[in-house]
Structures are given as structure tokens and as C-alpha cells.
Sequence to fold (330 residues):
Amino acid sequence: MQQRSMTQIDAKAAIAAGQETIRSEARALDQLAQALAQELAGPFTEAAKLLAQSSGRVIVSGMGKSGHIARKIAATLASTGTPAQFVHPAEASHGDLGMIVERDCVLAISRSGETAELSDLLHHCRRLGVPLIGMTFKQNSSLARASTAALVLPECGEASDDAPAPTISTTMCLAMGDALAVALLKARGFNKDQFGAIHPGGKLGAALKRVRDLMRVGEHDPLIAPDLPVPKALEAMSRDSLGAAGVVENGKLIGIITDGDLRRRLTPDMFMRDARALMTVNPITIGADAPIADAIAIMNAKRITILFAVEDGAPVGVVHMHDLLAAGVR
Fold:
């Protein structure tokens, strides 16, 4: 087995090569953007229409490096409201063609447009009448000719002439896939709530939630009357380790009692009084449908850890900073 020689890296040369690669890709993307307003305008619009009109899934396929890009495009489409799935072209010839049905739309990627592994998939699309979007760099290629909409990207070479591995071309295909995904989500009016619904995990999902998704309600949301004796008010505050209680009169939130209020106002004679004597009037509140990000901003700005959610002045829940942290919100 041949061993790799220990290559010495010249810092200046490495940085220069990296910069030139990035600049080459940036120039290619600029050329692609210009083409989108000119020769690619019609095919791009047709491709977007085919994707939008599909009642099934978008099947994205490609071989080698194009396959890696195809997987990412399928994931981006799916995460922005367009059902999509990657199908490996070689596996398609061994039974996975059954994953593609009449109501689907296929997006096939091939730099040359002559990828042999795609041939069975192209024939399957033609046989079933499945719309085919081809993404290639060759106008007269088999893929372009077979396509319902052919996205023929401008030829910009690769980052290295000595070893022309897919670099600039894959960047351009990835950008074109992103362009289609964003065009579709804007056309469909896909919004933050819909995005959050399919991104429930991790920090991204947590940040996209609404207050009502994380607020405590019912018995976990202590609400007391203003004439409740202070000892009873303290009992209510201790439930669920919230350390606070909302004071409600005629269905409206008129005050809040927190641990801070106790430290500032509790005296021996206070035990003979009612909740009204302890509460902070006109507490800071938030709407139940407000983004969690807004709740975080208010808590940080006001240096508080508890925020009651209200609708028309009536309390409907309460959020605690600990709950937000536990959900992954930062």
C-alpha cells in the first residue's frame, strides 16, 4: 500500500489558493445570477411551476458529487415545505424506481448530462409521464433533451485545472437548488410558524416556538385573588417551584407576586394582610402568540425570570426562564 508523502504546507501559498477558489466560486455565482435574469429565466420559471404544481414529492437524484448535492437540495426542499426525497440513480435501477409515481416531479443533476446511471430513471419518467427537471452544464446533453425544463448552468470550469474535481460546478448546483427552494416557499407563503412546525428539535426549533408552546397553564399557572391571605399566597407561589403567582380580579391580571417582592416587602405584620399588599401592580406581560425570542428579549431587558401571557388582559399562562433554557432556547 502506497503511503502519502509528508507534504509541507506553505502558509502564503495555501491562503492564496483558498482565496482564489472562493473568489472563483463567487464569480461563478454572480454569473449564474445574471443568467437567471436572462437565458435561464424561462427554464427556471418553468421548473418552479412544475415543482409547485406537483401533488406528490420532488424526487432528487444525482451520481457522485452531484448525488451529494442532490441529497442536500432534497433536504432543503423538505425543510421549507416541499415534500422531497433523494433517490440514488444506481439503486433506482434495482427496484427503487418504484418510489417514483405519476404525481411526483423529478429533479436530476449531472454535470455532463450523460451520467449513465441516470438513464433508467429518465426512461421511467418518460414512460410514466413524470415531469423531469434537468440540471446540467451541457445544452445538448441527453439529460437536457429529456427534460421538461432544462436548467443549463453557465460553464465556469472548476477551481483547479490540474485536478478538476467538482468544486465550482457543485457550488453552482447547490445555489440553484436553494434558489428553487426559496422561490417555492415564497410562492406558497411558507411562514415561520410552518417552518417551526417541521423543525421542533434543537435550538432552531426552540427559537421558532411561540409563547403558548412553552407556557405553563392550569394548575401549573398559579393565579390568586387579591384578597387571599398572604400565607395562602405563599403556598400558591411554592407550587411547581415557580416562585410567583398572578393576582387576578374580574378575570384580569392586575398584579404579580414574586420571590423578589417577598424579599423587599415581607415583614412580620405582612402575614396579617392579603395578596394585594405584596403584589407588584401592572406587571410586564406578553401575548401567548408572541415568538419565544420576544419573551427572552423582555426578560433580559427587564432582568426578570417570569412572564405572564395574557389575552385581552386575562392571564392564559406563564413562562419561566428555566423552562426556556430546558427547551434549548438561548
Summary: The mean pLDDT is 87. Residues 34 and 40 are 9 Å apart (CA to CA).
